[in-house]
Amino acid sequence: MSGGVDSSVAALLLKERGYRVVGVTLRFLSHSAAGAGPRARRGEESVLRAEKICRRLGIEHVAQDCSAAFFEKVVAAFVDGYRAGTTPNPCITCNEKIKFPGLAAAAERTGCSRIATGHYARIVRDESGKALLAASPDAGKDQSYFLYRVPASLLERTIFPLQDMSKEDVRSFAERRGLLEPGTGESQDVCFLEGAGLGAFLSGHLPGREGAVVDGEGRTVGRHAGIHTVTIGQRKGLGISAERPLYVTGIDAERNLVTLGPEEALYSAAAVCRGVRMRFRSVGGAIRAKIRYRHEAAEVERIERSAGSMRVVFRRPQRAVTPGQSVVLYRGGIVVGGGVISSSER
To answer: Which are the contacts of 143, defined by CB distance < 8 A and separation ≥ 6?
Structure first.
């Protein structure tokens, strides 16, 4: 229970289906977590808001402190990713390592056999009864991309009450049932950035280290304030004057170097992934791949797997394949696996 509309509606739907429901709020930030500051106070407001909603729904509420693990496994990893010149996705890490394990632990303590969230995703069953993760019918809100690393053992216990609903359905239901009130809006994805921009957050955690900005021929065309200030595909804010638009096409952490190029240099024929998490032993059929959350899934030519890594070859080159983001693979709307992008092939 985040205190937002989605989790509130999910809880009410479960109660009306006859479940005994316990609302669990995971504290991701606390005053003792380094760097939390005023964001921790806003986190406490979310706990109080969730507690209030649970009282209105007539269900139990518990709060669980996950702040130490969250800071270590999500926030610190996020900062380390930018230090290494990548663009990490903390929500994927949080779902895998904090949120779903935290809910499972709370379920054990409260005597609950299932766990549930307000995510827009589906659980479907194959012929053997195995739980499979699938995309939401609301393509614009689908969050299966963020869930591809959730362990299969936890998916077996998971219910997504909103899985057959669109965002419009949820808001309409919430309005009819009196769940829309000040403070029950959208939950912010990157919760530890709440109230601060990405640049300000990173500047507080990473030292500014200037370096060269070069073109595709290796000629210096400017300076950057730190590799954490740019990302692949970025065009604005580079302080570069050129005859045609230039984009960030490469970030070299070891050399503290940023490379620019024309838009056509952003397109990649393949993505190489590490930390692969597959749902099936073999993958065949028509596969599509998303290289970021808001990316339209692209057709895949082939997948080459080796120990701990995977090479995904696209049928058509894809724009701004970014290290640190994830490639998530789908077959007929079912998530078949994915991995964290380590490099791309132009």
So the answer is: 119, 120, 121, 136
Q: Are residues 148 and 188 in the same domain?
A: yes
Stretch 16-39: mean pLDDT: 77
Same domain for 122 and 89, yes or no, is yes
Is the pTM higher than 0.90?
yes
Backbone angles phi, psi at 307, to 5 degrees: -60, 110
Which residues participate in catalysis according to the annotation? 94, 191
pLDDT of residue 85: 95
Same domain, 292 and 237: no
Residue 291's pLDDT is 97
Exposure letters 275-313 (e unless 16+ CB within 10 A, then b): ebbbbeeebeeebbbbbbbebebbebeebebeeeebbbe
Check whether residue 233 and residue 129 sit in a common domain: no
CATH of the domain at 177: 3.40.50.620
Question: What is the domain count for the chain?
Answer: 3
Q: Please write the tens of the pLDDT for every residue from 136-194.
A: 999 999 999 999 999 999 999 999 999 999 999 999 999 999 887 655 556 555 778 76
Q: How far is C-alpha 279 from the chain's CA centre?
A: 18
CATH number of the domain where residue 216 is located? 2.30.30.280
